[in-house]
Amino acid sequence: MLPIIALLGRPNVGKSSLFNRLIRKNKAITHDMPGVTRDRIYGEMVDDEVRVAVVDTGGMLPDAALEDNDGIDRSVFEQAAEAMEEADILLFVVDGREGITGLDESVSELVRAAGKPILLVVNKIDGPEQEAKATTDFHALGLEIAPVSAAHGFGLNTLRARIAELARPLIAQGPEDPDAPERGLKICMLGRPNAGKSSMVNALVGQGRQIVSDVAGTTRDSVQITYDIGGKRYVFVDTAGVRRKANIHDSLEKMSVYRALASSKRADVTILVLDALEGLSRQDKRLIDYLASERTPFFVAVNKIDLVPKQHLKALRETYEEALRIAPYVPTLYVSALTGLGLQKVLTLAEDIRAECTIRIGTGALNRAMTEATTRHMPPVINRRRAKFYYMTQADEDPPTFVFFVNDAELVKPAYARYLESQLRKLLGIRMAPLSAVFRSSHEKKEPERVLKTRTPRLGKSRQAMDAKTAASKKHWVDSPSKPGGKAGVGPGGKPGSKPGKPAAPRKKG
């Protein structure tokens, strides 16, 4: 088990920027707006061969812990409190430019009460010349101070070394291989705002790890949660809601949507969570089309099915079946994150899709399947020519990619390509994973015969010069213009070879 380092503090002191610096990745969204981070975000820092887990939390507002406060601020405070409870070392982050505030003092009391090693990180100090002045007020807290600048990198190497020094005694001794823990199946939750993605994650892991609210857009960042269920490790990625581009006017929301779509590409399986009460919207269809075109392994989970009247269930199912015609291989589950209806099938289905994505099929089985498919339905004739399939092979996996070698790839039209894809799914047992078929010409295309007949043969320079010399040396005889009936090439007196000209003068007698 890695030592856990938690970043705590009031809102907008730079915890997320410091978190990204420590793990050397842009994992947490950073923005000038206070309260961007709400859920816990986990990362890993490595320094001097010491590996620790780093947790970024939302801004702590102690007044939000009051019983009469049931809003987002209280949920953020509870998430930070849970991170503080599970952490081994606490990094209390403050703003060096603003100095110590009453809210900092309130948070410091909560941090001290945890009874764990504390390091006071004074952020936004851009250089050593500002260090003495910016840290003066914070000495009153009686904590070890580490001046840094998360934006410019000042003091970060010293901070990493100090964290490694504090964490080294906490690392379990033994021959444990750091790469030994199973990576786990990575599942991304994608969908429109308020579709129930966070609720589904909480229901699957059995804990309130994600903040759940009726307010759309509660989750702003892609939050990664690792959990062991039934002896297997799963990594859940809860993403922000994806709205239409025309409805997004906030730069923070644009960044959240970008992170959500990027997380779906990096995940092993994506679960598209839809709201059964709101029906199938245009944005839902766009997301289905996006995932299908990107060849992303995914399935659809229609949430809140317990709130749909029974007489409307049949029409609801027909609506989703019609929408998924563009990707008929995609399964659909009807679940309820609130009651747990249908959730027992979610992880099993995700594992089955992942297994199909990593399948590897031998060349012999592929060519037998290709022969059977092309024999059952031959390719159509295009411009008096028919596509001839030679052989096929599997070029890649995740998703499975198959290459067909044909005489001319342009003769394989989209309709016949879809037919071959459906036949491959039946013959090879790939029912739910995305499949990619590539058609490649096995040799260069031959020119039509009519072009070959009219094309002038190319001659080398020496051959051309020789032909020109030969043509110049030849003598061409033509008929004499004074004798229309004469023979060409015959001179006066009938002797061949003589030059044509005037008639000879009569011979004089005596």
Helix content: 25-40%
**Tell me about the biggest sheet?**
6 strands, mixed
Shape annotation = extended
Radius of gyration: 39 Å
The DSSP helix count reads 14
Strand content: 15-25%
Give structural notes.
It contains 14 helices and 17 strands. With 510 residues, it is of the alpha/beta class. It folds into three domains: 4-170, P-loop containing nucleotide triphosphate hydrolases (Rossmann fold), CATH 3.40.50; 185-357, P-loop containing nucleotide triphosphate hydrolases (Rossmann fold, 3-Layer(aba) Sandwich), CATH 3.40.50.300; 363-441, GMP Synthetase, Chain A, domain 3. Helix 11 crosses helix 12 (414-428). The relative contact order is 0.07. Residues 30-36, 173-181, 211-220, 246-253, 445-456 and 477-494 have low confidence and may be disordered.
